[in-house]
Specification:
single chain
């Protein structure tokens, strides 16, 4: 049912736009909490099926270097 609704009502440009936003998200001037909230929102909107490791790498890639180093330790 979910996939049928998605196919019928979510147009490819909408999904592609969400995926592009998720792919290019950067923390920039956002706090870590704001960045995390935006990242999670884009994950849900883009409906990507990926492993937890892939999601973690995608998250860390957009996180500021100062925080990425701390997380990696």
């Amino acid at each position: 049912m979910r996939s049928k609704l998605k196919d019928r009502f979510l147009l490819p440009p909408y999904l592609q736009g969400n995926y592009s936003e998720l792919h290019n998200i950067q923390q920039g001037t956002l706090s870590v909490e704001e960045y995390t909230r935006e990242f999670k929102k884009l994950l849900i909107k883009s409906d990507i099926q990926q492993s937890e490791d892939q999601t973690t790498v995608r998250y860390l890639r957009g996180l500021g270097p100062r925080y990425t180093n701390v997380v990696e330790l």
